[in-house]
Amino acid sequence: MEESKVEMTYCVTGATGYIGSWLVKSLLQRGCRVHATVRDPAKCLHLLSLAGGDERLMLFKADLHHEGSFDEAVKGCDGVFHVAASMEFSVPEKENVGNYVRSRIVDPAIKGTLNLLNACLNAKSVKRVVLTSSISTMTAKDDAGNWLPIVDESCRTPIDRVWNTKPNGWVYVLTKLLTEEAAFQFAKEKGIDLVSVITTTVAGPFLTPMVPLSVQVLLSPITGVKMSSKQAQITTKQGSRALALSKYSSSILE
Ligand SMILES: NC(=O)c1ccc[n+]([C@@H]2O[C@H](COP(=O)([O-])OP(=O)(O)OC[C@H]3O[C@@H](n4cnc5c(N)ncnc54)[C@H](OP(=O)(O)O)[C@@H]3O)[C@@H](O)[C@H]2O)c1
Q1: Residue 170 sits in which domain range?
Q2: Strand ranges in the chain using DSSP code E only, listed in sequence order
Q3: Distances in Å between the alpha carbon of 211 and those of 86, 204, 205, 206?
């Protein structure tokens, strides 16, 4: 892939996170201008020291839970990488778990993503939005429980199955599936070019000051910390490059 010649501008949400910070770095390395959104300015010092950051990186305070929060960040952007996601999925022992999950976790997540898409719509400059989906939304089994020979984007776990069986990490999977569904519906109605990258679990060197959750998961067999997630052998750098260079997002980077 050729390095971009024209200086394009991309917004990266969740830039303080594990994937987000690598994505910011990758885009700066490619000569792009980056509008990085962060919730807490104190957590983004590592971004400011990135090569090219002094000239081509702008930081914006934005929260998915605040309406209109992304308006300034996406203004003038050619593309938006939506990486931010709340990773808080604890559900208290309650009778009506379904209602709790829907109202306290899924609905705010959907609202936040639609809030961002709305900002993209109003900006008028955004040509494509890239969502960060997860391998955990995929299934390798058919309805009868048989293993599939190939798993691709058609193998999404049915939402009903997640609600009914509540497998390990089900709240995360459900939130991802329903947010994606709502985002694609909104994009279709409003004419937004939206694509979703199915990201595997990533691990490797990190730019964040804290050990990222997915690295903790992959190290858990060694550390003994009990965690749950599907594991895949891919480095963070590859993961962020995959996002930046995937066939879906590449056209906006050309
Ligand atoms: N890491 C993986 O292996 C993996 C695999 C598949 C998919 N993904 C997806 O990739 C994305 C990034 O994952 P990650 O591992 O990089 O996670 P991460 O390190 O926890 O980063 C999450 C980012 O989202 C931000 N965020 C959380 N709640 C927010 C809110 N209400 N408003 C605005 N920003 C908010 C966080 O900001 P703060 O720093 O302020 O908390 C942080 O910057 C997520 O969508 C995740 O589902 C990750």
Answers
A1: 9-253
A2: 9-13, 33-38, 57-61, 79-82, 128-134, 194-199
A3: 16, 10, 9, 7
Q: For residue 5, what pLDDT is reported?
A: 57
In a domain, 72, yes or no: yes
> For residue 213, what are its two tokens?
């959750």
- pTM, two decimals, is 0.88
Does residue 3 lie within any of the structural domains? no
Measured by CA distance, the residue closest to atom 33 of ligand 1 is 63
Q: How confident is the model at residue 214 (pLDDT cuts 50, 70, 90)?
A: confident
CA distance 138 to 6: 36
Strand order in the sheet with 9-13: 57-61, 33-38, 9-13, 79-82, 128-134, 194-199
The CA–CA distances, whole Å, from 53 to 17, 28, 108 equal 17, 7, 32
| Overall domain count for the chain | 1
Atom of ligand 1 nearest to the CA of 62: 33
**What are the catalytic residues?**
176
**Distance in Å, CA 2 to ligand 1 centroid:** 28
User: For 39-73, what is each residue's pLDDT tens digit?
Assistant: 988 888 888 889 988 999 999 999 999 999 999 99
Cα 179 to averaged position of ligand 1 atoms, centre (Å): 14
The ligand 1 site (C-beta within 6 Å) comprises 14, 16-20, 39-40, 43, 63-65, 83-87, 112, 132, 134-135, 199, 201-202, 212-214
pLDDT in tens, 7-29: 899 999 999 999 999 999 999 99
Is 2 a member of any domain? no
On whether residue 210 sits in a domain, the answer given is yes
CATH number at residue 245: 3.40.50.720
